[in-house]
Amino acid sequence: MSVLPPDLDATRFAEALAEMRQAVGADWVFASDEDLGPYRDSFSPVWDTQHERLASAAVAPADVAQVSSIVRIAGRLGIPLFPISTGKNFGYGGPSPNVHGSVIVDLKRMDKVLEVDEARAFALVEPGVSYFDLYRAIEERGLRLMIDCPDPGWGSPIGNSLERGIGYTMGAFRDHFGASCGMEVVLPDGEVMRTGMGALPGAKTWQEYRYGFGPDPAGLFAQGNFGIVTKMGFRLYPRPDHYRTALVTVPRRRDFVKLVEQCNILSDAMLCGEPVYASPLMALMGNPAFAALATKKGGASDAALDAAASEAGLPSWQVDLQFFGPEATTRANFEHARERILSAIPTATVIAGEDFPLPATREQLANVAQPYRSSIRRHGALGVPSLGIWKIVREDGHLGFFPVLARAGEEVFRMQRVMGDALHEFDQLPSYFNAASAPLHWHPHAFQMVFAPPVRRADPAFNAMVDTAMRRAVEVAAEHGWGDYRAAPIYQDAVSDTYSFNNHALRRFHETLKDAIDPAGIIAPGRGGIWPQRYRKR
C-alpha cells in the first residue's frame, strides 16, 4: 500500500480493506499498484509528480446495498471515497480523485438497464451502464427511441450527466443533466434516498415528473459530493422518421453576427438540431501570413480578414443545420430556414445536404455522401455511440477548458481577441483562440469555445507550461465573465474560486450543506470545489 488515506495508518487501513472485502467479495477490492494503474488520470499534466492525486484502493460494489455498506465502513474510519461510473472522464481527470489517498468506488458492476419504455420515452439505468449498453438495449428490442450520446460512447449516461455533459441531437436532449429525471442516491450516512416522484411509494411517474413535492435536491448531485447516485432516469428522443442537413455560408466576417441570430431563433423554436459552426478560413492557419493575421494581438481588422477570405476564395463562416422529424416537416423547416437566413443575409449561400429516413445506414453514419464538406459528427448527431472521436487525441492526451459565453457573434469575436492575447505567450501550443475559431452550440442556450492543450507524459517541462496556460485561461476568462463548466480535480478549486459573487456566497452555501450532510467529508471531498470543514484551509 504505497498510498494511504489521510489520517489513517497502514494497519488500520488494512483492517478497513478487510471489511470492504467482506462486504463486496475479495475479488472486488483492489489495492496493489498494478491494480490501481487504471485509476490514474492518463491525461494528467502532473503525471508522476508530487501533485498527482492517486487512489489508495478501489472497491467495486455490485448493488446499492453494497454501496451503502462501503459508505458506512468509510464513515466509521473517516476514509474519503471517490465514486466513478465508468471512469472515462478523460480530459477532466478520468477516474482520479480530488483527495490523494481516496478509495475509488467503482460502480462498473452495477451495469443493468433496468427499464426502457418506448411509449413513454424513458430509460432507467445503473451507473455502470455505458451509452453503448443503452443503445444496444434499445436496438435489440427494436424500439423506436434514440439516445443522445457524447464522445466517446463508452462513458456512462449517469456519469456524463452528473458532469453536465452534452450531446448533439435536439436541444431538449443535448443537455444530459437537463434530460435526466429521477435518481436514487446513497447518502453519506449510508441511507438510500430517491428524488422526485421516486420518493412516493407506488408512483409510476419517477422518470416523467422529476420534481415531486417540495425542494428538489437533484442538482446537488451534479458535480457535487452529497451522495453516490446508484440509479438515474433519462428522457429519450422518440426516433424521428427523417433526417435532413443543409450548409449555410456567409462571405464576410461580420455576417456571423446575423447568422448566429437567425440560428438562435431556429434552435429556440426547436426547428433544428445542433447548429455546427465553423470557419473555412481555419484551413489557412498553415499559411504563416494568414496565421499571423488571425492571431494578431488586439485582433485583425474585419477588412483585412475579409480580404484574406476573398483572396482565398473562401467564405468567412459556415453553419451546418440539421432537421429531424417527418420527411415533409424536415423539408418545410429547411425551406423556412433558407428563407429566413437569406432575408437577413442576402449574400449568404444555402446548400441542401443529404436527407434520408432513419435509422441511418452505415454509409450515412460515415457521413461520406454529403454534397459538401460537412462538420457534422454524424454518429453523435444520430444518437449512435462510437469511439471515432479518439482520432483527435494527439500525443498522450489533452486537457479540457470550455468556457461558456453568450450566443452572440460579437461575444465570439471578443473571446477570440481576449483569450488569444492572454495565451499568446504560450507559443508552443496550437492557437485555440484566433479569428477563425468557431463556437460550439452543444448546450441549447449558450456557446462554448475550446482550449484543449496536449500533454506529454515524458516531458515534464512541457506539461508544466500547459498547466500554467490552463490556470491562466481560467483566470482571464473569469475576468471577462466566461466561466468554465467542468474541470479536472486539479483545476476544480481554481474554477470554483472564479464563481465569487458576494464573497463566494454560492460556495459558502455548499460548504454549509456539506458540513451538515457529510461532516466527516466521506463522499468526494473537494469535488466541485466543495470542501468539508475537515479539509478546508481557508
Automatic annotation (TrEMBL):
InterPro entries for the chain: Cytok_DH_C_sf (IPR016170), FAD-bd_PCMH (IPR016166), FAD-bd_PCMH-like_sf (IPR036318), FAD-bd_PCMH_sub1 (IPR016167), FAD-bd_PCMH_sub2 (IPR016169), FAD-linked_Oxase-like_C (IPR016164), Oxid_FAD_bind_N (IPR006094), Vanillyl_alc_oxidase_C-sub2 (IPR016171)
One Pfam family, short name: FAD_binding_4
SUPFAM superfamilies linked to this entry: FAD-binding/transporter-associated domain-like, FAD-linked oxidases, C-terminal domain
Keyword Transcription: no
UniProt keyword annotations, A-Z: FAD, Flavoprotein
Residues annotated as domain FAD-binding PCMH-type: 51-239
Cited PROSITE patterns: FAD_PCMH (PS51387)
Protein name: FAD-binding oxidoreductase
Lineage: Bacteria, Pseudomonadati, Pseudomonadota, Alphaproteobacteria, Sphingomonadales
